[in-house]
Amino acid sequence: MTETMKINIGPQHPSTHGVLRLVTELDGEDIVSVTPVIGYLHRGLEKSAESRTYLQYLPMVDRVDYLSGFFNSYAYITAVENICNIDVPKRAEYIRVLCMEMNRMTSHLLWFGTYILDLGATSPLFYSFRDREPLMSLFEELTGQRMMYNYFTFGGVRFDVTKEWLDKILKYTDEMPAKLDDYEKIITSNPIFLTRTKNKGILSKNTALKYSITGPCLRASGVNLDFRKKFGYSIYNELDFEPPVETDGDTFARYKVRIAEMRMCLSVIRQCVDYLKNNSGEISAKVNSVALKVPEGEYTTYVESPRGLLNCYVKSDGTNKPYRVKWRTGSFYLVQMLPEILKGHSMHDIMAIFGSLDVILPEVDR
């Protein structure tokens, strides 16, 4: 047997998109084993909740996954609302879903640009950031922030949306499908891209289920599970959409699912805008968030985030501070599965496969 060599990929590697260390054992250029090492980013976001009031902790949850803060806010807030039996107005729920689907779009666009950059192409990065910018500006116009929004609040949302703001979103949904077509013309049939992604990092249906994988990576392996459809939480059961599914389970299939999901996002966004333009109502229940005391109880939310199932478990002991907050995030499960899908590939396949998973390290190391 030839002698193997161990090398570190990260924790400063530009294509790990965060401080992930992969201790990689190589036989020549072939991967014998991979051991993910986390712990370079720990911020104690779960433990921090215990020393803060429910309202004080709220701005922190946007940072669990800085690319999809609306989903984190929704998961935490709805857990508290369910313990307190707070009824959220329908208009507020539509605004929440609209913001989340716009956030899903911005997350997938950033993934697309950086993933293709990992594979050596630079132009798609500029295209994706160009097309992401209008949504970021709309977030800033609505919430005052481009990333850490702190816009959802207990009982609803902080501000109502305007007709002019909604019209800008409709304009975006009209223009964006043609730009997605351009993406596909450049990438989807590109022979270099196909060589780097087809039959690489195959995640079988059984392996995906064994490792509790969710989200686009699970649907790319042929499992049609989307928690928006399964649970119909918020107002998703009133919307018409069908999550995309691929069966090959390889890196290319994960790319195809996310491209199709961006098209689906545009449809859901338009449906939400149509409702908000044609229906009025309250944007928040009457809740004194500053003095909020949550009765004893516990609740776990189920949210379909851009990286899969997002759970927020909140346990209350009857005071104005959480007794326990626990996050379950998709990225953590994707990282623990890396040894399974990287083994047997070449070293140059690592970033092509890892990038297709769309891992965000703050979700992994909370």
Overview of the molecule:
The protein is α+β, with helices and mostly antiparallel strands. The protein has a single domain (5-282, 295-364), classed as Orthogonal Bundle (Cytochrome-c3 Hydrogenase, chain B), CATH 1.10.645.10. Helix content is 48%, strand content 13%. It contains 15 helices and 8 strands. The chain has helices at 45-48, 54-61, 69-84, 90-118, 123-143, 163-187, 191-197, 205-210, 216-219, 227-231, 251-278, 330-336, 338-342, 350-357, 361-364; strands at residues 5-9, 21-27, 30-37, 152-153, 156-157, 297-305, 308-316, 322-328. The strands form 3 sheets. The protein has a 3-stranded antiparallel sheet. Strand 4 and strand 5 form a beta hairpin. The two termini are 40 Å apart. The model has no long low-confidence stretch (mean pLDDT 93).
Secondary-structure topology with pairs:
Elements: E1 5-9, E2 21-27, E3 30-37, H1 45-48, H2 54-61, H3 69-84, H4 90-118, H5 123-143, E4 152-153, E5 156-157, H6 163-187, H7 191-197, H8 205-210, H9 216-219, H10 227-231, H11 251-278, E6 297-305, E7 308-316, E8 322-328, H12 330-336, H13 338-342, H14 350-357, H15 361-364
Antiparallel strand pairs: 1-2, 2-3, 4-5, 6-7, 7-8
